[in-house]
Amino acid sequence: MSQSSSITIAVDAVGGDFAPKEVLAGVALAVERDPEVHVVLTGPAEVVEPFAAAHPGRVSAHATTEVIAMDEHPATAVRSKKDSSIVVGCRLVRDGEADAFFSAGSTGAAMAAATIVMGRIKGVQRPAIATVLPTACEPAVLLDVGANADCKPEYLVQFAQMGAEYARVVLGVERPRIGLLNIGEEPTKGSQLAQDAHAAIAEHVEGFIGNIEGRDVTSGEADVIVTDGFTGNVALKLLEGTSKTLLAQMKQAMTSSVVNTLAAAVLKPSLNKLKERLDPDTYGGAPLLGVNGVCIIAHGSSKATAVCNGILVAARAVRGELTARIAESIASE
Q: What kind of fold does domain 1-124+290-333 have according to CATH?
């Protein structure tokens, strides 16, 4: 859509547990941090129009009359609620009126709308949800984390290709190292899917370093970690839960005595940096890779920081021509 350096991001104003307050606060942060980002808010007129009026030139309103609730069946809701904030946001991208779409609403509905309305990139068999994880070194991309519970080896080949392009565009990794999540390092380890996927990725994807085990996910050994959506979702939730528990335990230990509290005051700057690295909000949201446009899906509990970062990640993906790069990668096979 963009004919200049300006990037237009359609944002679902009413998606998420803390919408619209936190979504609007995140939009305000994003347009402040990136002067070339313009936001089109989709949602009820009484929500989007006053906010747009308060941010002339940076935010515009596209009023909608329907909202998809978290508990609605995704595909059914997308087909029946054509004037919902999610469907309209995806339609704006499809019609060239926006460069990307961001939502913290129903993951299933956002995924269904992007797939149905935007459509898949030619040759992509299954879109995949990717997420950025903190590691001991630089962040890594993990995919699929929930879009495809049942997979075929050829799906994982495409996940590897799409994840590599995302790592190049958003994380700035020139030559991504790609690992296949498995229960052992040997090519003959794991399920039949894992064994067949290992052979297929090794044949078709540059930068494949072989299998990596669960303990290596956060070691920084791989820049892109590929798996099926069931395993990826379990791994992601386990990592998120472990991080949350560890941070809570550290806080409790640091405040358990006067001496510890004084020590914590000295360590506070370093601990804050650690918390920021482990906080999912730092990375904004998860892209749905393989659809014909940039679509960022954030966690339902996202607050202003996550919304802001998700919008900025979307802008980075647009500037890096992520969709075109994925299309070229898939077409080359």
A: Isopropylmalate Dehydrogenase (3.40.718)
